[in-house]
Amino acid sequence: MTPSSLLALGHAPLDLAAVLLLAFGLKRLGRVSTARAANRLAALAMTLAVVGLLLHQGLLGWPWILAGTLVGSGLGWWTAHRVAMTAMPQIVALFNGCGGMSSLLVALAAAGLPGETSALAMGSIVISVLVGAITFSGSLVAMAKLQEWLDTPAWTQRPSRHLVNIALAVACVGCSVLAFTPLVPTALSLALLATLALVLGVGLTLPIGGADMPVVISLLNSYSGVAAAAAGFVVGSRLLIVAGAMVGAAGLILTSVMCTAMNRSLLSVLFGGALGSGAQAGGADQGEYQNITSCSPEECAMTLEGARRVVFVPGYGLAVAQAQHSLREVAQLLERHGVDVKYAIHPVAGRMPGHMNVLLAEADVPYDQLVEMEAINPDFPRTDVVIVLGANDVVNPQARTDPQSPLFGMPVLHVEEATTVFVVKRSLGAGYAGIRNGLFECQNTSMVFGDAKQVLNSLLQELRELGVGKVDNRRQAPVLAG
Question: Which residue ranges make up each domain of the chain?
Fold first, then answer.
């Protein structure tokens, strides 16, 4: 056998091994304790896939491939180490966009190869170009809005924007049909399709407000998977097909979960405008706050000293302050004092799906202490103290009590049912939905104004001065008479 045939023969086993490792790695991403190892397996799978592709192609153009690999790996390493947790949603959006652009470029390159293209191959190319372009431009808009580089223009809230998007979608369909006919050159029809799809991605994403961004990120993630799967058919890569299908399906499932958690349909998110950008709040949401009670970290510490059940509710303000490690120290001190500590996790807390889980995992918070909304809500009436850290809309009781509120019907954490609630915020500013929070005016709620990290550090100092967490001050379980 020739060296080239031997190289090609080694492609199939490596490709299969890459697919299996990727599937196994994705499965292990379901648990925080195995997520790091799962990432390594996925990285190994991609390495095997690249090596298999090089063997299959006979190492053609390997200097360019090696250079691209080194540059991409360097940028990925730098990004992972330099980007703050608060910017992680923006990075996820950017990565989704990069995936879409990669699929777009692969499809355009395949269309430019000499020879006749079958109908199936052209269909895969068209899907890769269309979905990849929408994913790329939409993801860049999402990233810019999350980074606060871009606001929601007032004109995008007008009904006429739907007509523009419909016209663009019809034009994209027309260009897709032309790609199968000899009426115009294939390169021209695909170039027009890519251009129109890029504009359509901007038109679909620009009107969506910050409150709906978790849904948008999930949907764009699904789009990137669909584009990758289509690109896999174009280049004949089993790994791309399997990985793209998994990402596409997982993104759709996650999008459905996000919509349910926000009591919003996907159509209302995509076509209903920006929640909080142009929504008019109900009567109870307008005006200034009344009967606000504030307290100091010292008073909060004195209440915690006598508590037996404490629930922390992390929000985006915790991520902004980079206070997850300070929170973990406070929780450990309370645990040594015999306090039962839990963390209430709302599905859309933060700016992307799972944001709070990732944030707390960075501080080595035990995964069994993270409790989802449906499981923790029945426990709030038996909870002594709830500390809300930067969360807003996800703890707003008006979602349950005020039919005029834009949030009405959205599942929220029932923190107001606890004995005492402390809300740590820098101000009384509204959340992404742009409405007042009735929790702040509850009789059992006290505001602790300040940066989350500063407040938690002060609370930690006060608890230590009270002797909380010392070995000789630890609560002992009652001894039963024999």
Answer: 1-82, 83-277, 283-470
